[in-house]
């Protein structure tokens, strides 16, 4: 019989490795799709079809000479990127990617994921403000405004799932979908809001207005370099990956599919295919969309939709019921 401590440690290490690989792979897939839409090549030389390019970009930044502005708070400058990576890695361990039972699971883990997204965004703000130059302060202020609008909208879609099922357990919600139907059939607008909010909260086109000015083309990351920039970019990839995987878990039934319960290796394959479908949609939007002039425009549409969704979820709860 396997020692529980050994099992947990081994499963945790395997989960961390899978999360890193997925983050690099999803970045490559996104860059490749956007490039094809815009009639470009995209990653090509490093690895088969440029598959290893995100990893080599990360390693290249790690090995570059670092230039730290004199105004920087060294402690925050070093600590903030690592906090983002650590928070998101812990969050992934609650996602049932390899099997219906994640490495870590308890009744309120969905709330933990919500807190992790908030703490991660806070680490971005700390990284930007740690430098204290006009460029990063302005970029960070725009990040705060955009985060306060769209992260709340992103998380409201998950709140509607909780309202319908009365459960804050990710594995419990996935079990409900396996026994019945994916929640996208009950909450299609919430699903759409969650998917498109991913672009906004991560400052991807067309919601990249924090990068709109030429002098702060990298937004709050304008003065970051070398190791700090490498870990910030890694955290951003992890944020994107965890957001997509959470949407798949809560709305698309995670890795459920034909024979996925009887044949364990099919579970992560179905999960991956669903995640790639969402990334394909997001990449298509990135590739064809023009930057919105106001970050408030989509918010004006999304907020009324969220209110309607809350009413819809309450009606479903009353007339159909749902308890995990």
What does this structure look like?
- Helices cover 66% and strands 0% of the residues.
- The protein has 324 residues and is mostly helical.
- The chain has one domain.
Number of helices: 10
The overall pLDDT, averaged over residues, is 82
Strands, count? 0
* Estimated share of beta-strand residues: under 5%
Ends distance: 31 Å
How many domains, as an integer? 1
Sheet/helix structural class? mainly alpha
- The outline comes out as globular
Alpha carbon gyration radius: 20 Å
Low-confidence stretches: none
Order of helices and strands: HHHHHHHHHH
Oligomer: single chain
Largest sheet: none
Helix content: 55-70%
Secondary structure layout plus pairing:
Elements: H1 4-37, H2 53-63, H3 74-92, H4 109-129, H5 134-165, H6 170-179, H7 188-201, H8 226-251, H9 266-288, H10 296-319
Helix pairs in contact: 1-8, 1-9, 2-8, 3-4, 3-8, 4-5, 5-7, 5-10, 7-8, 8-9
């Amino acid at each position: 019989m396997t020692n529980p401590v050994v099992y947990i440690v081994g499963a945790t290490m395997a989960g961390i490795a899978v999360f890193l690989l997925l983050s690099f792979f999803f970045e490559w897939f996104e860059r490749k799709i956007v490039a094809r839409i815009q009639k470009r090549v995209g990653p090509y030389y490093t690895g088969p079809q440029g598959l290893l390019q995100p990893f080599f970009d990360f390693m290249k930044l790690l090995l570059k000479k670092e230039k730290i502005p004199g105004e920087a708070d060294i402690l925050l400058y070093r600590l903030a990127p690592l906090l983002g990576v650590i928070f998101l890695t812990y969050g992934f361990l609650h996602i049932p990617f390899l099997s219906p039972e994640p490495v870590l699971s308890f009744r309120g883990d969905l709330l933990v994921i919500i807190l992790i997204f908030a703490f991660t965004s806070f680490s971005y703000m700390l990284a930007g403000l740690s430098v204290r130059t006009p460029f990063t302060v302005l970029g960070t202020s725009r990040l705060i405004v955009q985060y306060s609008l769209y992260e709340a909208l992103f998380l409201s879609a998950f709140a509607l799932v909780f309202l319908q099922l009365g459960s804050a357990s990710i594995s419990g919600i996935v079990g409900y979908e396996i026994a019945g139907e994916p929640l996208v059939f009950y909450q299609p607008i919430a699903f759409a809001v969650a998917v498109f909010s991913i672009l906004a909260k991560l400052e991807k086109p067309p919601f990249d207005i924090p990068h709109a000015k030429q002098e702060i083309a990298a937004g709050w990351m304008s003065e970051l370099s070398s190791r700090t920039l490498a870990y910030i970019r890694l955290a951003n990839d992890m944020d994107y990956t965890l957001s997509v995987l959470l949407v798949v878990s809560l709305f698309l039934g995670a890795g459920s599919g034909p024979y996925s319960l009887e044949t364990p290796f099919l579970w992560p394959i179905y999960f991956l295919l669903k995640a790639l479908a969402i990334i394909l949609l997001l990449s298509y939007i990135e590739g064809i969309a023009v930057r919105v002039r106001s970050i408030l425009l989509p918010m004006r549409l999304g907020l009324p939709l969220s209110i309607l969704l809350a009413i819809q979820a309450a009606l479903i709860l009353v007339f159909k019921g749902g308890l995990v």
